[in-house]
Amino acid sequence: MATIRHLGIIIDGNRRFAKKTALPYNQVYKLGAQKVYEVVRYVFTKTDIPELSIYALSYDNLLRKSKELDAILKSQKEEFDRWIDDSFFEKYDIKIRFIGELNLLPIGVVKSCIALMEKTSNNKGKTLNLLMAYFGSREIVLAVERILKHKNIFANGNGKNIDVQDLIQQNLSIKEPVDLIIRTGGGARLSGFLPWQSEYAELCTIKKLWPEIETKDIQETIEHYNAVEMKRGK
């Protein structure tokens, strides 16, 4: 049977859900943040997937109008603060990592992110990567910058013995390749989501908007992926 080692989820549709339902942004993004927790619980209790990466806030999201952006960040901070007091992550040995330009976020949000990372830092069984203020090309640039800080590895002709692709991968924030990417809202774009790690990933779209997603939708998508991979003989 096909085995998913790393699942990626691109959240899409909160804004369209607000327009569809005429609900205020603060209510919609609160529903969206709660949905993240619901999906995280499902993945780490009902599947054997050890690593989950969720595109929670793209760099482009930071350019949205202040009223909407404030609602997004407020709902995320409130949800993260709730997680700090939740025993779920310790019970299931889940490490939480925030990947992205956290320095671009309000200090209150950053403190909540740091608190969650510190709280779960000793967990080793599974990994939840939350991409915040993230854009894929920037992650690759940062990896190259880390490498260039150690220029001596290329000195005296040693560079010819170095696998540059492996070197870049080892300096990325997320190293495990993504097997399956689920995008909600009917779109089929990666939108800068883990471009290096997603080189051979299967992209599956769900038409439902993010607040409408049910765990059965995630389950059906995973089952579809497994069926396709089994036919391919993997």
Give a short overview.
The chain is α/β, with parallel strands linked by helices and 234 residues long. The protein has helices spanning 14-21, 25-46, 66-84, 88-91, 107-119, 136-148, 164-170, 215-231; strands at 6-10, 51-58, 94-99, 126-134, 180-183, 202-205. It is globular.
What does this structure look like?
- The protein is an alpha/beta fold and 234 residues long.
- It has one domain: Decaprenyl diphosphate synthase-like (Undecaprenyl pyrophosphate synthetase).
- It contains eight helices and six strands.
- The protein has a six-stranded parallel sheet with strand order 3-4-2-1-5-6, with helices on both faces.
- The longest helix is centred in the first third of the chain and has 22 residues, at 25-46.
- The relative contact order is 0.19.
- The model has no long low-confidence stretch (mean pLDDT 93).
Number of H- or I-type helical stretches: 8
The CATH class: Alpha Beta
Strand order of the largest sheet: 3-4-2-1-5-6
Order of helices and strands: EHHEHHEHEHHEEH
* Cα distance spanning the termini: 7 Å
**Overall tally of structural domains:** 1
Give the C-alpha Rg.
18 Å
Strand composition percent: 15-25%
Query: What is the CATH homology-level superfamily?
Result: Decaprenyl diphosphate synthase-like
The name CATH uses for the topology is Undecaprenyl pyrophosphate synthetase
- Helicity level, as a percent range? 40-55%
> What is the residue-mean pLDDT, rounded to a whole number?
93
User: Sheet with the most strands?
Assistant: 6 strands, parallel
Q: Please report the total strand number as a whole number.
A: 6
Would you identify the CATH architecture? 3-Layer(aba) Sandwich
Uncertain runs are none
Structural class: alpha/beta
